[in-house]
Amino acid sequence: MEDSSTPEPKTNKCRYLVEDVEHDKRCPNPAREGKNLCDNHMDSSQGDLEDFRAATDHFKQDIREFFTRSNFYLVAEGGLLAIFFAKVTKTMPTTTFEYILNVSVILTGLGLAIFWFFVSSWAVKWIDRWRAEIIRVDKIISQIHSYFNVECGPCRPRSPEKVTRHLPWLFIGIWAIVFVLIILKWTRVIC
Questions:
Q1: Angle ∠(113,114,116) on CA atoms, nearest 5
Q2: Spans of all domains in the chain
Q3: pLDDT digits (tens, 9 = 90+) for 7-18
Q4: Which end of the chain is more exposed for a tag (fewer CB within 10 A), N or C?
């Protein structure tokens, strides 16, 4: 009589997602020995890697575009501030036209800084969506889980784009202070 208390060896299941990614429904077939996929899905893993590579390329491109846009706005804001302060320190406005010109430069800088803030905030949300997707797919197709470990690990630093997103507030503050000061100076001249 055979000993029925000996458990059968556990077989690894195929890690390929067949449908409904959110509920993690994987292929029910046993995986090849030493592999994570069954015979039916071994060939499809190359396609999954290509899709993963395309998704990570898109993610990296979004990050590059975010910092390119931020650099553009930074140069534009710096240029407006330099022009404004070079003009104001050279000659203080004395006529109504000069005050209106100064206020229009201030409002342009303030408007650009506010627009920059909204654009960067929306871009960070988009980058976060791609980051979450990369992490989700990384957990499925990778044994190493490098994206998951770096992005969700205990030593994860604050992402640079989330810090850079708040840079427009510096310019919003500068333009707001300058606007208040120029209005106060203008009211003294008029009164």
A1: 60
A2: 1-42, 46-190
A3: 545 557 776 655
A4: N
